[in-house]
């Protein structure tokens, strides 16, 4: 019981001080160490936002997983009034640059009379419109820092909040609650909910016409709307693509259908619910020993920081807490971490060895292998070894999303949108890209930066300053930034990496000569 009380108190204390921990002033608490792994700080703490949460034990948090699905970590903004600048125009789309989007926005029978809803181009006496696609680290840093006196801001995303991803692993086992790791985008940039020319749209971008300076969108849900699906378009003066990336599956059969990724709050909720369900089911009478062991076998694929941190959290939860409450099956609960090479390969050798020893000491079985096939109950490795599982978490890195692949824009090595030293997209005037969906073109002579939160955050901060400079030179409107002085190009300096490994232990790699461009 002491362990449960300790975790409940620690989770609540960490929740209450999350914004202070993100600012990294005075050092990190042990429970917050993983938050600084990829974060340069300041994003959630600035603006004076503080958090207050109830004390919830991990077991109670697990028991309330169904309720959490409906209310925890989901901040629903009221829909924007229809009178805030939305007009209806006849659909005239360019088929060459946005053929797929044009097909999607073609009016249906119900739309013929009124045309396609749109946000019209800004007038000569109006502020230029900055359209931002996404609400991840890069997009939210840009939204927070952009000069709203110079630009009207429109944000389009299927998610109305930012997720503090380094702490997601802690929410899976109840150390933190889901609401502790999200921040509504309207708090990050208040004009999105109050500015006369600024809006947030809960929608997916389906296409971009760079010649017409338009983006084409489809709402996440059309329930209650007059047309299903509901399409609209937005005219922009400046466009920032920061829509992030998707988990890599390497086209392995069965991964998408059976594995759970750890990228969103919904993923953490699903992991929590699955873990509790398997613990309950394993105590049913009549189950064979092998089936009971399968249900209680948690497998993590991918030995990067996310996989290691989740394995450490899960091991702590099992060793210190679950075994006290589920003593009948305490010897059958296992955690296996599968990695093709070495865990934490970007860290120093001595730190990798420490992590390996620490995880092994506290019950995590480390397996070196390559996954060949996944079924609902077992994994097959390249050497034909079969690994039965009850819970499978997949964390093998990220790659370009289908939306990014569909865009007719220059690409960097690896399939990301190609950008120059100022994060501009060549051949697409007034278009910028940053975060996990963007990378330097080969012609720049710079390597593609890693998909880390601190990279994205730094790019968002840089681009906000650059757009401010452009606006001061009267270059905010479309096609007006050609002769603007942009200043110094973007330079990224790696300030270090951190990863927690459980039992209030963490690794810190502060080598000065790492990943500098």
UniProtKB/TrEMBL annotation:
<feature type="region of interest" description="Disordered">
    <location>
        <begin position="97"/>
        <end position="127"/>
    </location>
</feature>
<keyword id="KW-0999">Mitochondrion inner membrane</keyword>
<keyword id="KW-0285">Flavoprotein</keyword>
<protein>
    <recommendedName>
        <fullName>FAD/NAD(P)-binding domain-containing protein</fullName>
    </recommendedName>
</protein>
<dbReference type="Pfam" id="PF07992">
    <property type="entry name" value="Pyr_redox_2"/>
</dbReference>
<dbReference type="InterPro" id="IPR023753">
    <property type="entry name" value="FAD/NAD-binding_dom"/>
</dbReference>
<dbReference type="InterPro" id="IPR045024">
    <property type="entry name" value="NDH-2"/>
</dbReference>
<comment type="similarity">
    <text>Belongs to the NADH dehydrogenase family.</text>
</comment>
<feature type="domain" description="FAD/NAD(P)-binding">
    <location>
        <begin position="129"/>
        <end position="460"/>
    </location>
</feature>
<dbReference type="InterPro" id="IPR036188">
    <property type="entry name" value="FAD/NAD-bd_sf"/>
</dbReference>
<keyword id="KW-0274">FAD</keyword>
<keyword id="KW-0560">Oxidoreductase</keyword>
<dbReference type="GO" id="GO:0003954">
    <property type="term" value="F:NADH dehydrogenase activity"/>
</dbReference>
<keyword id="KW-0496">Mitochondrion</keyword>
<dbReference type="GO" id="GO:0005743">
    <property type="term" value="C:mitochondrial inner membrane"/>
</dbReference>
<keyword id="KW-0472">Membrane</keyword>
<keyword id="KW-0520">NAD</keyword>
């Amino acid at each position: 019981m002491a362990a449960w009380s300790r975790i409940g108190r620690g989770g609540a204390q960490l929740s209450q001080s999350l914004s202070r921990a993100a600012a990294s002033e005075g050092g990190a608490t042990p429970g917050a160490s993983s938050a600084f792994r990829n974060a340069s700080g300041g994003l959630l703490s600035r603006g004076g936002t503080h958090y207050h949460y109830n004390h919830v034990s991990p077991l109670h948090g697990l028991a309330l997983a169904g309720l959490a699905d409906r209310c925890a970590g989901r901040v629903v903004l009221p829909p924007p009034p229809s009178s805030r600048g939305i007009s209806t125009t006849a659909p005239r789309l360019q088929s060459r640059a946005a053929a797929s989007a044009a097909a999607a926005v073609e009016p249906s029978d119900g739309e013929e009379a009124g045309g396609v809803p749109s946000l019209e181009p800004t007038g000569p006496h109006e502020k230029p419109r900055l359209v931002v696609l996404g609400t991840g680290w890069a997009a939210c840093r840009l939204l927070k820092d952009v000069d709203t006196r110079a630009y009207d801001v429109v944000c389009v995303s299927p998610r109305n909040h930012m997720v503090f991803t380094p702490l997601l692993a802690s929410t899976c086992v109840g150390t933190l609650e889901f609401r502790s790791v999200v921040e509504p985008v309207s708090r990050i940039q208040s004009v999105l909910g109050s500015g006369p020319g600024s809006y947030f749209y809960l929608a997916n971008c389906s296409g971009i016409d760079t010649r017409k300076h338009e983006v084409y969108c489809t709402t996440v849900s059309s329930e209650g709307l007059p047309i299903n699906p509901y399409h609209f378009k937005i005219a922009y003066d400046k466009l920032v693509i920061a829509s992030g990336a998707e988990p890599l599956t390497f086209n392995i059969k069965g991964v998408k259908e059976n594995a759970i990724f750890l990228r969103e709050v919904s993923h953490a909720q699903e992991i929590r619910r699955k873990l509790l369900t398997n613990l309950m089911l394993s105590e049913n009478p009549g189950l064979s020993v092998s089936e009971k062991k399968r249900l209680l076998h948690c497998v993590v694929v991918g030995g990067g920081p996310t996989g290691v941190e989740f394995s450490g959290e899960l091991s702590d939860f099992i060793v210190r807490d679950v075994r006290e409450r589920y003593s009948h099956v305490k010897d059958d609960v296992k955690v296996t971490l599968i990695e093709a090479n070495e865990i934490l390969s970007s860290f120093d050798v001595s730190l990798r060895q420490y992590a390996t020893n620490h995880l092994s000491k506290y019950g995590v079985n480390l397996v070196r292998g390559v996954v060949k096939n996944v079924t609902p109950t077992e994994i097959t490795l390249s050497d034909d070894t079969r690994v039965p599982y009850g819970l499978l978490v997949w964390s093998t890195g990220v790659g370009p999303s289908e939306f990014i692949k569909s865009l007719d824009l220059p690409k960097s090595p690896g399939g990301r949108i190609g950008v120059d030293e100022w994060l501009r997209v060549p051949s697409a005037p007034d278009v910028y890209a940053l975060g996990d969906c963007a990378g330097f073109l080969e012609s720049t002579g710079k390597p593609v930066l890693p998909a880390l939160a601190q990279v994205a955050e730094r790019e968002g901060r840089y681009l906000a300053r650059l757009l401010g400079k452009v606006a001061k030179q009267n270059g905010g409107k479309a096609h007006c930034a050609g002769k603007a002085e942009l200043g110094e190009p973007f330079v990224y300096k790696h300030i270090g990496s951190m990863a927690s490994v459980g039992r209030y232990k963490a690794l810190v790699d502060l080598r000065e000569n790492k990943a500098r461009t």
